[in-house]
Amino acid sequence: MTKRPHILIIEDDPEIRSLVQDYLQKHGFRAEMGDGGAALDRHLSVFGEPDLIVLDIMLPGEDGLSICRRLRASSRVPILMLTARGEDIDRIIGLEIGADDYLPKPFNPRELTARIRAILRRNEPRPVAKKRLKLRDFVVDLEARSVIDAEGSVVELTSAEFDLLECFLTRPGRVLSREQLMDWTRGRRSEPFDRTIDVQLSRLRKKIDQSEPPLFKTMRNAGYILTARVEEA
Question: Per the confidence metrics, is the pTM higher than 0.85?
């Protein structure tokens, strides 16, 4: 029997919580719910990490951004944030601190389910022809989804950041547009003024692109390109 993906919904509105839980359970998920940070902590201590957390930004007490930042200090569990429509700054901050994706309210449960499935697919282990690649002083294990620096330390990347890196590693020397990167890493089209890719690449640069010349070059009105050589490790 196939294991049902375990989704934890952290949302203070009981009507939305119940709606999302019922919909997900009808579509093959094991869905649990809580109303804030304390409920999330209790769930993690008893059941461990779920496969994905749906996290509302506007929570009483500790807000969703603070919870996301706290989780990212020690966990790579995928996080999909629910944001208020039009609150672009919240979406950008959420991505900057490590959320994998976001969905503005009000939303269609069908779209939420599609976003969840897309994130889970990206995190599934999959066979690759070249499992370990060398990028300057870094060794990237595509199967283990890990990055090791020159000192042998693990570079902590979120699943979304690793997805973006993998896109460049498997297409070195090619200019990749924001639309292509959004499609390959998110499974959806880029919306006007959507800064998801820009924010994720900014985070990736801070973690692995501090040397000269830069690994990633911005091509004006075209996209980005990985300029360094990629070799088998």
Answer: no
